[in-house]
Amino acid sequence: MRPLKNNQRFIPNCLPLLVGSLPLKNHGEATRLMLKYTPEIPLWIQLPFYKAEGMLYQFLSGVPGVTQEGEDFFIDTQAEGFEADFLAFYEAYMAFDETGHVDHRFSLTDETARGFSTFMNTMKNTPISPVTVKGQVTGPITMGIGVKDAAGKLIFYDERLRDVVIKQVAMNAAWQVTQLASLGAPNRPIIFFDEPGVVGFGSSTYISISREQITEALTECIDAVHRTGGLAGIHICANGDWSLALESGTDIINFDAYSFFDRVILYRDHLKKFLLDGGILAWGIVPTSNPEWVDAASEEELFLMWQKQFEQMKSLGVDGKKILSQTLITPSCGTGTLSPDHATKVLSLTKALSEKIRSTYLG
């Protein structure tokens, strides 16, 4: 993890933060709902109601060879003009490598991410003063094992396409940093890489993917965020080998504390080092994966659960005040698959739990 000067440090102090998706149809309505519950760290919203805003397709704009047939999409390296576009892709990337300028090729578009432009326009015309702002992009591992080529092969197994997708994710993240920074929040913009795939290392899905390949992919993307002046986060709503994320050099790790805290805490040495190095833990303690869990959840129950987890985290040998200063409170994942009523309850609980923790421990 890169050490930051004191005046560059982001101290979240248990503020609430959302993951990204809502089960609504209107981007303006979604943005207003987000601002109601998390105005301190607002973010642009994804609406999976629209197929173009799916977790994978949403961030492929600019990748050479993207082909859509019906509801399916893939990368066709035999498509007419692929090689010329492939060269243009790398020329755009090299411009960033040489100058730090992010080509418009890597920008989000209204076709697949209208929530971004809606968010930017709303923030420029809304009299609020956020602590910082957040964006998100599907991470290079999850993207690489989720998108296929024309033959049905996962693109992470193709050396050329793997490099393309890593650079696409890195450049999209860097572009978001430059855009979000224009909003003028006092702390650096945060970009989360949605990476449920990263903890699956060692499973059958990763049978021929090396730890080194995963590390290199994450490092390139995190470095792009740092180079453009942002903070990098990794959001993981799954379970597996947490050492990869904890050793990645990311500034923030967002984990499902509701379902998997007992697994994450097993990585005691990794967690301790991450915290002592200044890493921020975003505790995804408000459930989202099961509507029945949302129905049963209450502020008091989640507060008691978090207190027990906090005590276990302190047992690593890290001062409680330090942990609190490096904590964010989030839902366990996005709410795009829930009903609007369930999603609103998740947002309300996230805000309420954050406020209760801060009033109890931070005064």
Summed up, the helix count is 13
Biggest sheet overview:
7 strands, parallel
Strand content: 5-15%
Which class best fits the helix and strand makeup?
alpha/beta
Q: What strand order characterises the main sheet?
A: 1-9-8-7-6-5-4
Alpha carbon gyration radius: 20 Å
Number of strands: 9
Average the pLDDT over all residues and give the rounded result. 93
Estimated helix fraction: 40-55%
Task: Report the uncertain regions.
Answer: 1-7
Give the N-terminus to C-terminus distance in angstroms: 30 Å
SSE series: EHEEHHEHHEHEHEHHEHHHEH
The shape is globular
How would you describe the overall organization of this protein?
With 363 residues, the chain is α/β, with parallel strands linked by helices. The chain is built from 13 helices and nine strands. α6 links the parallel β5 and β6. α1 crosses α3, α5 runs parallel beside α6 and α11 crosses α13.
Features:
alpha/beta, 13 helices, disordered N terminus
